[in-house]
Design brief:
Helix content is 26%, strand content 32%. It is built from 6 helices and 10 strands, in the order ααβββαβββαββααββ.
Amino acid sequence: MAWARRRVEPTWSELAGTLPPVGESSRTELLATRAREQYPAATMHTQIVPYVELLRDRFDAPLYVGLGGRAAIVLVLSRRMRADLRGLGARIERDGARLYLSGQRLGRYGILRAVLELPERELIFETPLTLAHGDVREFLGAAYAGTVELHIGHTHDPWPLQYACSAAGIRPVVAAAITTVAGLAYPTTVEEQAGPAAELAARYPKISDGLSRRTRVRLRVAGRADGVVSVVTAR
């Protein structure tokens, strides 16, 4: 009997080694800079950051971060999307969520297209991600271990949903997305990102366009997640 050869995915270090230096600092780096400015004599400083406070004025648009080595998708919903969070938690616990990641070649630029789909009609969100951003790099590096957290708040609901989800199969999806855009430039500034983002919107007029099983990662609730993250900075 002939045995199929098992595909070996690259390690995150191998993938990260193919990427250029970070062009836009992550929140981890920004917190470290702030700590050094506020506590210049401290050799080590711990900051406790509530996830939903990362999105003070950003609604209905997910944020992908890797603070403290934890891959987290943070989303604050407005009343435009949903009256409150009642009932949504039960659906997520039962059906999980879906994350689609794909590499997109847009002229001389390469970006990742992330689509988060929650188990309710209309709750689907597209986010262009640039590999030049530290937050994106930290998110992907942490997610490569197989766990992604969901932190979902609401402008008119005081109790956010906070889940730790298994993300089985995320490694080949991330590896394929990064490989697809290998050798291209990654937009860094807002001006650079505007063109590729517009081209991406034209390529996929509806958020549900272009999604496939090859780019899908099922997020299944494995337990509750801590609503805050500890960020330790050292000089």
